[in-house]
Structures
1.
Amino acid sequence: MLIVIALKQLPHCVIVGGRSLPKPLIAGMAPLAPARISDLIGLIYDCAIAPSRWPEALAEICGAVECVSGVILLLDLARSQHRFAHTWGLSPDWAQRYFDHADDFTGFYSRAFSRDICLDGEPLLLSQLMPLVGRHGQRVYDAWTRPQGLSEMMQTVVLRQRRRLAVFGVNRHESAGALTADQLSIMRLLVPHIRRTMTIIDILDVKTIEIATFAATLDTFSAGILIVADEARILHANGSARDMLAKRQPIAAVNGVLSVRDTQARDEVSRAIALARTDEATIGTNGIAVPLRDAGSAVAHVLPLARGELRTRLVPQTAAAVFITQPTDTTPRDVGAVAASFGLTPAEARMLERLAAGATLREAAEALEISANTAKTHIARIFSKTGVSRQTDLIALINRVVPAVHRPRSENGR
């Protein structure tokens, strides 16, 4: 995201977000201690429960990578609107200018943050982006960014859906010098946690979970939400999750412990819950968009709850929240959009749709009335175009790219 910030220079300090930071805090800061990394990650996860905490989290992240401002946006690309926008270190007049040009910027995001330019989760530097986005991007840079004295920006996609895009970015002033490899490493460490938080915020429709009305609030969501303790012991389940447990699909309770049929998915969810309890800073990408393969297109996401001032007050002795999303309609266009983005042929797209609905390769071949050899040829070409080598990785890719509620069901209802 290309942005403008208003900075006032004083001899020995930089004015950021209405307060002055001494220059030693902007340049030459000591490496981050593990305890500070842990605190940062905990603050990021608190934002999943209370998105209004993002400015505080942005301030801490900017301090960690010696940047003067930061922003996180959740964009509705179809409507050129922002579902939310949180910033730190930016002047009020910038915000007004930015929202006055929202239509131009959301169109720019679609191009600048397309998958062929910006890999999900990988920090993209402004210096790398500008040669790739053409004249329009250069005009945006000249009008909005160059006059502000920014030496570099880091942006990364932290949520990519067919109609929605979330972008996180921090901005560095020229007085701080060039970004270092250590600072890029810090960003790469934090990005999976930001991705998880934005996924949960999107599922919760950008709502704040109030502690006083916690149980009633969870019951308003269509996604299944379970609060679990050590070893996936269920402490609380919302209405949608209770329905799933009663049907034993896509999840079940065995002696009060959360269970899923697929062994690989069960192991990944259990591992994520264990890490959430013992050391959420090491959870990484574990527990993000875990495909429950024996349950059609259902997906699980794990949010750590064992730490953090806000999260620990929700339910005593909790380890994590597990969110289960599953399709609610038979709309095939979303998978079609994925097929188009990777240049799949119509035949390959039909195969992809069957696989996304939970069919095995043999079942897909039978439903499409093609031979096993033809089906193998289709999936080999799909693998080549999408950059994966296994069907489980392909389904995981679809789960990351396509909203679970918009994936097609298989004909047998799985």
2.
Amino acid sequence: MDKIQEYKLGSFIIEGRQFIGNIKIMGDKIRYWERPDNQNLPSKELQELIEFSPEFLVIGTGAASLLKVPDQTKRAASEKGISVFIGKTQDMVKKFNELHNNNKKVTAILCSGS
């Protein structure tokens, strides 16, 4: 069964619970995070996800991919041997569910807006 059952602009339904806003998923933990005004994903937001030691990190950049992921952020994950997927949030929700349903250790940071 999909962990993320629904994504609509601004919200997610995860295991039957609604989350309004940007979220991070680490196993059974779901946390909110604030998107910066400059549209760049800060590496500090990823630190907690990297420390979870996933095989995969999924980054949803919003419905219109406005969130930018700096190269140093990508490098920090790959240096730890973590495969990174980056794309529009609606596509990354599908990728997250695919990996999760295949019993992969996956974390995600998903931007709920555009």
3.
Amino acid sequence: MTASRTAGIPRQKGGPSASPSQIVAFVTFMLPIGALLLFWEGVVRFGLADATILPAPSMIVVREWELLNPVKAERSLLLVHIGVSLWRALAAFVLACLVAIPLGFVLGLSAGTYRALSPLLSLLLPLPAVAWTPIFLVAFGQGDLTIIGVCFLGAFFPVLYSTIQGVRGIGVHAIWVVQSMGAGPLGLFRRVLLPGALPALISGLKLGMAHSWRTLVAAEMLAALSYGLGFMIFAARSYMDVSTMFVGIVCLAVIGLLIEHAICWPVSARARFCATSSRDPASS
């Protein structure tokens, strides 16, 4: 009876719309941020804080508009800084994934190799990637190679460790069952290894991208020659341009938030769906 009634209801056409729960979640998320901005603005406007040290949010927005230069977007200095920083962070992240994911599967499947390299990984994993910046500066000098190399290390170890743990968490019985059905290495990887390791792998990708983005700021402050958000913040210090510093900080925070919620979260949801579907017997 329920099925027939449901079948008779016409489906709505058009793109997906936000549900009331999503709107409530968004408002709940933005409410503390809005309250902080209002409090910050009031503190500066009433003279309780020095605007030359802590500019009001409205002052930061005005300065950001000046740097953005929307009338002549091709000459926008802020967009150039953002684009260069994104390119460096994404290049380092992609390179880290290309190396860390295959290596993680190898170490996760080989118990002997993992035991041999585990002390080395335990030693290097807690080490901040920024600590390598002086070494890279001595070896390669200032420039993109040093920045991307440091960001690569920031993303590499979280992705590697998560991939290893995801592969090692797969039950051996699932591997035996698929092998007993005649699956080769490719079938074993597609049906068992990848779906089983995917949740941990996605978490590692999120951590790796976050580490790469955070490491980028310090690396650009020390090694950038001309462009990048970290370079912009550090260069503004020389002129006591605090508003420009805060513009860079806001851009870093907003871009990091967009990466987390607009890119990583949908990928995580899709990965969980694929992993569940692949483990469903009906799907095979």
